[in-house]
Every structure is written in C-alpha cells, then in structure tokens.
Write a structure and sequence with these properties.
Elements (H helix, E strand, L loop, with lengths): L7 H12 L3 E6 L4 E4 L1 H7 L3 H4 L13 H12 L4 E9 L5 E12 L5 E10 L1 H23 L3 E6 L4 E4 L1 H7 L3 H4 L12 H15 L9 E6 L5 E13 L2 E10 L1 H46 L6 H27 L7 E3 L1 H12 L7 E8 L4 E3 L1 H18 L3 E11 L2 E7 L7 H4 L17 H11 L3 E5 L7 E7 L7
Length: 484
C-alpha cells in the first residue's frame, strides 16, 4: 500500500488508535460501543469482545449515569465535549479518575452518526496530588501548632511564611510580614549586616549559622529586644533556594539566669556584710563613743567642737550604710500578721514630718483595701524609703499622694509625687544596688524595697509620666489578703 492508495489514511489512523497510550472507543448515538482499543482494555479491564455492542454505561459508575445522558445529547446536537475530568469504572469495580474528550463523527452527508471518546488515566496524578496535599496539610498543621516561631525567607531575605508562634513572638501578623525583609526583626547593627551575610553565603558557600544554631537578639514590634535561639536550615523549592528559621524564645531562661546570678551575688554580699558587721560596726560604735567623750571635754566655744560634731555625723552616716548593707544582704523572712495598709501609710507619713527638712511635705492617703497578712515592720521600711525619696525629689515641699485599691485580684498601692520626674537613663537602673543620683546615699534603698516586696510575693515598679513626677506602684497578691 502506497501513500496514494485509498486505504492508506485509514491504515495510519488504525495504527495510531491501536498504539495509543490513551483509551479510545467509538460509540453510536444510542451509546453502544463500536470499537475498543488495547489501551481501553488495559484501563477498564474489559476485552474488546466483552464490550463491543454493549452500552458504554458499563464503564460509567451509577452516580455518573446522568452525565452520560448529557454527553449523548450534546453529541446529537453536533457539540464537542472538550477535555474534562470525571470518573469511570473498571470491570473489577475500581473507580478510575480520567480526563475525557468526546467529539462527534459525521458521515459523508455531514450527519452525526457516532462519537469518538479518548480517556486519559489520571489516577496516579491525582493520587500524587492528594498525597502532596495531605503532606502539605500535615506539615502546615505542625508549623501552625509549633510553640517556636518558624519563618521562611527567600534568597533576598524576603519573608514568605510566618507561623502563628512567630506572630505571638514578634507582635506582627503574617499578612504584615509577607514580602518584608526579615531584618526588620533584628536590632542594629545586625539589621544592616544581615543581607550581607546571605549574599556572602550564596557567593562563597561559607556557613556561619546554617545547620549550627546560636543565640541571637531579636526585635519585637514594640521596640523591645529579647534573646532567642535561632536554627537556620536551607531548602530548594523548584530550583529556588529558601531558608527556614526556627526561633525559640529564651526570655524566661535569661530571666531565671539573671535571678540566679543576683541570688549568687546576694549570697556573697551577705557573707561580706556579716564580716563588716563584726569587723566594722562594733569598732565603729566604740570610735563614735570615744569621739563624743573627747567632744564633751572641749569648751563649747572651741573651734574643735564643730569638727567633733562633723566627725560624729560622718560616723553616723557610715553606720547607716552598714545597716542598709545588712538589711539588703540578709534574705528577708516576713513575720506575717494582719496589716491595715492605709493606716500604716498614714502613720509613716506622719513620721516623715519629724524631719525639720520635710515639714512642708504633706502625705495624702486615699482609698482602702482588705486587711492583708504581711510583715508590718518590713512594709514600713518600704514606705519610709518611698516617701523620703518622693519628699527629697520635691525638695521638701509639696504633696505626696498615695492611693490604695483592690484591682484585678491584687492589693495595689500607688505613690505619686510632684517632683521633676526621673530621666530614662536613671529609670533603667533605678533598682540596681549601689546606684544613686544623690550626693549622699548608699544606693540600697530601692533595691532593698524591691527585695522586701518580692519577699511578700509582690512586685514594685516605677514610672515617670510625661507630665512630671514619679509614680511607684506596689502590688501584693490577693492570696495575702483577707477581710477584717
């Protein structure tokens, strides 16, 4: 047979149908199968003799029969059914995902007499897609439920994924972060250096953190820095390099370590204070007594009398420093009993006026709270310290307002003065032992107050409002409170 013979085209078409990887069948307008290629046998499990002359509905699942009727109606109106995905049924009952294309076959007169249907098996593809989707959903669930922050960036440092834990960690939503440079989560100078790190790694392949992990400082939305452990991994997606970062918040650990360091330092300070008490305090009292005896023998109008008075004052100041040091260094053990906070504050305020330099200071105590179980002597030390600080900040003139209340299940005491306020750089170190802005002062007053309040399982904080003055807030847990 040559290319010009009448049956040449038909022979080529038959060969193509027989060798096709897609299932091809021909059906008449009544839906009866007229031809069935080898690929159809492999796909559906029926041999050609088994299905020739039978309705095509044999390979259509019961729940898809209406679809078959609609296809036949379209064929009768000479409409082609373009590729669409549906389900067919094999001889053994298996449901098969297929992509189906059906077009009408016309006779020499142009009338539609049959239809050709090509079905491509999509089972493996759909199974793969389903597995990928399941895997993606599974990993997405893991990422979304992770306690640690997880961030994915591209080779330019732009964020592509930001899980819920990262949202909680940094204070940004995922929508806000997608497409932004990850360096926004870093304080200076790391922010400016980060892009250079990525470029250097992509150029040289030298790893500094990838696959190793280290502790770094991160930056929250509110501008606060906090420590995290960062682990970085590298992945390739469709040939593009991505980097994943897992961030574990170390704030709690850092706080505990700071407390341990403070406790260790205080223990050593306590040992030193004990030595001072034994080696300095008692001799100091002896020296003071001897100086006073010498002073008593001098004539009242002697020039040396004034010097003796100054020496005694200096010795008293040194003695007060030793007392402050001992009070601060010894672990406080509150001896609790019923305490009326308003009454204690009022009495402490009245004692303040016994100092001639503070006679023009008025302490206004308002509000009330339940009687609390606390150590009145220790709280009195705290209140004295706060009121004296406030009075000195106002240069011995003005009103100190103390408000006592029960808020959110805790007893709260706010002490507000009319002074100039506290500079930010001082406020940061306000509870640091031995830090003071006074010409004479040990720098142990507020740190001691903090220790005594924390011994009552409470907290103390100091703020300096924009309008001036300082506000000290003491909180005592409600567990310490009981009704009178």
């Amino acid at each position: 047979m040559n290319a010009n013979s009448p049956g040449y085209d038909a022979a080529i078409l038959a060969a193509l149908v027989e060798s096709s990887e897609d299932a091809i069948l021909v059906k008449d307008l009544d839906g009866l199968i007229r031809s069935w290629n080898p690929a159809a046998e492999r796909l559906y499990g029926y041999t050609a003799p088994e299905v020739i002359g039978r309705s095509v509905s044999v390979i259509v699942p019961p729940d898809r029969q209406d679809e078959l009727i609609a296809v036949l109606q379209r064929l009768r109106s000479e409409q082609r059914v373009e590729r669409y995905e549906t389900i067919r049924q094999a001889k053994d009952g298996r449901r098969i995902d297929v992509a189906l294309t059906v077009w009408p076959i016309k006779d020499a007169g142009g009338q539609v007499v049959a239809a050709a249907a090509i079905a491509r098996d999509l089972t493996d593809r759909n199974r793969t897609e389903s597995a990928l989707q399941t895997s993606e959903l599974r990993w997405q669930a893991v990422v979304d439920s992770a306690v640690d922050g997880i961030i994915v960036i591209d080779a330019s440092g732009l964020i592509e994924a930001f899980n819920p834990a990262a949202e909680r960690l940094f204070g940004y939503s995922e929508q806000e972060m997608i497409g932004r440079n990850v360096n926004v989560l870093m304080p200076a100078p790391y922010r400016d250096e980060h892009d250079g790190y990525i470029a250097r790694y992509l150029t040289t392949g030298a790893k500094k953190i990838i696959g190793i992990g280290r502790e770094v400082t991160a930056l929250r939305r509110d501008g606060t820095n906090f420590p995290v452990h960062l682990s970085v991994g590298e992945i390739a997606v469709n040939g593009e390099r991505k980097f994943t970062g897992i961030l574990h918040d170390l704030s709690t650990r850092a706080h505990i370590e700071a407390q341990l360091r403070e406790q260790t330092a205080l223990a050593r300070l306590g040992e030193m204070a004990a030595v001072i008490a034994h080696e300095v305090k008692n001799p100091l009292a002896g020296v003071r007594g001897a100086i006073q005896v010498i002073g008593s023998r001098l004539p009242k109008d002697s020039k040396d009398a004034a010097m003796i008075k100054e020496i005694v004052a200096r010795l008293d100041a040194l003695n007060e420093l030793v007392k402050d040091l001992l009070l601060f260094s010894r672990p406080p053990h509150p001896k609790t009993g019923p305490v009326d906070l308003a009454a204690l504050l009022t009495v402490t305020g009245e004692l303040l006026n016994s100092d001639p330099a503070l006679k023009e200071v008025r302490v206004d105590v308002r509000g009330a709270a339940p009687i609390v179980s606390a150590d009145a002597n220790l709280l009195k030390i705290v209140f004295e310290n706060l009121l004296v600080n406030s009075a000195q900040a106002m240069k011995g003139r003005g009103t100190i307002r103390a408000l006592i209340s029960l808020v959110g299940g805790e007893c709260r005491i706010e002490v507000r003065d009319e002074g100039p306020g506290i500079p930010a750089e001082v406020l940061e170190r306000i509870f640091t032992p031995f830090f003071t802005t006074k010409a004479r002062g040990s720098g142990l007053g507020l740190p001691t107050a903090k220790r005594l309040i924390e011994a009552h399982l409470g907290s103390i904080s100091i703020a300096s409002p924009a309008g001036g003055g300082a506000v000290v807030t003491i909180r005592l847990p409600v567990e310490l409170a009981h009704t009178s």
